[in-house]
Amino acid sequence: MPNKIIIAIDGYSSCGKSTLAKALATKLSYVFIDTGAMYRAIALYFLRNGIDFENEIEINNALQNIKLNFVYNQATLKSDMVLNGENVEAEIREMRVSEKVSEVATIGAVRDFAVAQQQVMGESKGIVMDGRDIGTVVFPTAELKIFVTADPAIRVERRFLELQATNPTIRKQEIEENLQHRDLMDTTRERSPLKQAADAIVLDNSQMTREEQFNLALSWALAKIG
Q1: Strands, DSSP E only, in 150-220?
Q2: In terms of CB atoms within 10 Å, which of 68, 119, 208, 224 comes out highest?
Q3: Tens of pLDDT along 74-113?
């Protein structure tokens, strides 16, 4: 059996982290864990139940009632986010969740809750996990750390094309403002801010196709796996 490693992929919103992570996991027969989906599901639960983001008691009580897991979707050949037994994959991608997810992710109790689950998922290695603090906090000893970035204008365009398919009325300005807000929240939060790990490899995919990005990252992974 080949040596199994942990691949940690961090970076900004709409840089293609999840797309890359899924592709690597499929190629290597690894488990893909979408940490962003976990935070989105928590944000969705908070929104549905009117949880005050500044009320520690409400937050802690809510977290005790949240169960997260992933289920493989045979139709899409991808893993869907399941919140308390309900498939919420489509709903967590809506703009109302996108507008709140970074704020929810700054809450200490929420991060502790999510990180604890993520670390358990990685105990056996053989995983690809993407997020904001995977290489710095969740798995600081991961064998391969990749920090993904791209030009802001390109990120807006990519996100616009992605959302337009399900929301024809979406405006680029709305997306640009959302990404700017999320970048600010992600990089300045007190707990586990988005930053490049000292030993991470930077992958700027502004001018790359998905295939080019994948092939480059795969070469890095295979070198580490040996």
Answers
A1: 201-204
A2: 68
A3: 787 777 899 999 999 999 999 999 999 999 999 999 999 9
